[in-house]
Amino acid sequence: MSRILVVEDDPDVQAALKAHLESIGQEVISARNGVEGVRKALTHYPDVMTLDLEMPYMNGFQTLRVLNLIHITVPVILISQSKLPDGHQDLFRHMVGICSKTNLWKELPSALLKALSTSQAPRVDMEFPVGREEIVRLASEGGRKRVLVVDDEPENLSAVVWALEQTGLYDVFTAGGGQEALFKAVVLNPDLMVCDVMMPQLDGITLAQLLYTLGRPLPMVYLSTNTQESIVRQAMKLDCVRGYLFKQDLLTMLGSFLAKVEEWTHTTPEQKEQWANAYQSIDLEKLTHSGRELGLFTGGGWGESSGAMTG
Description:
Blueprint lengths: L2 E5 L3 H13 L3 E5 L2 H11 L3 E5 L7 H10 L6 E5 L14 E6 L3 H15 L13 H8 L5 E6 L3 H14 L2 E6 L2 H11 L3 E4 L8 H10 L6 E5 L4 H7 L5 E6 L7 H11 L4 H8 L7 H7 L21
Helix pairs in contact: 2-3, 7-8
């Protein structure tokens, strides 16, 4: 028996797929939209995923891009109302088939057979592996809180890490950019992320919104050289963001920064649940603006490539 995740917003189609797959001996997990689909892929480890293309909020293309971004390589069968233009089938290495809804029951068996034959491959591509020292800290039973420090400039990264490690109170992990931070945030489940804002490819604000979307929001403090009021306001909109500090002031305020870390890492289960259920408040237009370098949320489906936040 294989576990199949059915992501479909039409309840009739979802029910029909569930009944059909269970009739041939498969275990079925259902999700109503792309956000739920990504979350259940993270928690239920499906062998195969069927994914509706036309869904509100986060469509099939966008869902595939998020799966790519967090390196989940479960075989995906895309289900669409209309035929896709030639060439799109090859854009995602783990998309193994495309079925039209008008011909679904004729096309699904061969696509499912292909998907099941490839589902033994590793489901997570460890492009950003957790280092040996990080694994040792994860396995320790010291009960210390975990802090993930994210910056694309090594000198800034080392300064913050050194200050936190001197306290002896935290297990400190690092990421050299937004994509690595997203991966490690999912794997490590830190109690706090101290994060740069202006990073190439995936900036800190988009990173926070993606963690909301994935159901993995965590307390964040931004540490940036950018003093633009509009950027500060945008960064502070999410409830999980605890502060916005300027790098140029870090040395003079290091004592107060360290004193606040313990407060920032304290999050109640109720707060985490509230944040996890708040994904509908994420503004996808902002994700479109700051995430185009990755092609995550472009309005044209496969989308153009444009500059992300840098500096």
